[in-house]
From TrEMBL:
PANTHER family xref list: 4,5-DOPA DIOXYGENASE EXTRADIOL-LIKE PROTEIN (PTHR30096)
Required cofactor names: Zn(2+)
Gene3D superfamilies: LigB-like
Originating species: Pseudoxanthomonas taiwanensis
GO molecular function, one term: zinc ion binding
Lineage: Bacteria, Pseudomonadati, Pseudomonadota, Gammaproteobacteria, Lysobacterales
Residues of the Extradiol ring-cleavage dioxygenase class III enzyme subunit B domain: 7-241
Keywords carried by this UniProt record: Dioxygenase, Metal-binding, Oxidoreductase, Zinc
Family: Belongs to the DODA-type extradiol aromatic ring-opening dioxygenase family.
Listed Pfam families: LigB
Domain of life: Bacteria
The keyword Metal-binding belongs to this UniProt entry's keyword annotation: yes
Protein known as: Dioxygenase
Amino acid sequence: MDAPLPALFLSHGSPMLAVQDSPTGRFLDGLARHLPGPRAVLVASAHFNAPGPVVTAAERPATVHDFGGFPPALYALEYPAAGDPALAAAVAGRLRDAGFDARTDPEAGLDHGVWVPLRRMYPEADLPVLALSVDPWRDAAWHYRGGQALAPLRKAGVLVVGSGSFSHNLRALDGRPGAPVPDWVEAFTAALRRRLLEGDVAGALDWTALPAARLNHPTPEHLLPLFVALGAGCGAPAGLLHEDVELGALALDAYAFGLHA
């Protein structure tokens, strides 16, 4: 491959993203056309939580419907991508070399943080897909270091993706049509967005100091994949690929790191 692939952060929103027509869905539908073709995809998912890095290593990972209360048709969807046990072992090895207690899991499947956005990006499911866990008990800097260990994979044709949400307070969601975006969402997202676009890694990693940080992320797991992608992108200034807010308080930013590196 002539140039490394970028690392991506994608906000995956509701599981309905898999089937609904929406600005974010349409963005994902066209995203792959603007990227070099990868040989595999590695997704750090907000919905795959474990103490220490875990990499899925099934040859045929199951499609996990890890959500409730949605239309029955959503539970019938499958994303039959292959896994890649050899690549999983290599990913875990890189993380161990960087000081992480990483392991592979041959039983774990692909949660909706993985397959929902990939179903829009690569609907043919013709690329091997691995999931990487995040650890909600560890901070942003820990995840950034993990991403740094994965950066060389970009030159080997592996698309490294962090899948989460730029803001994620489910109790604050507003289902009214045209629901206004609360000031506290705008304050936090603008501050974090500015740090990413300016390449201010230290400022981004210190996200809990930003305005209304804990109101936007009462728990951190949906933001942690961002820092994996930031590390895999070698801390390069972000390119803002997409910006939207659903249900008033669900910010759905998407970023590329190292797009032209």
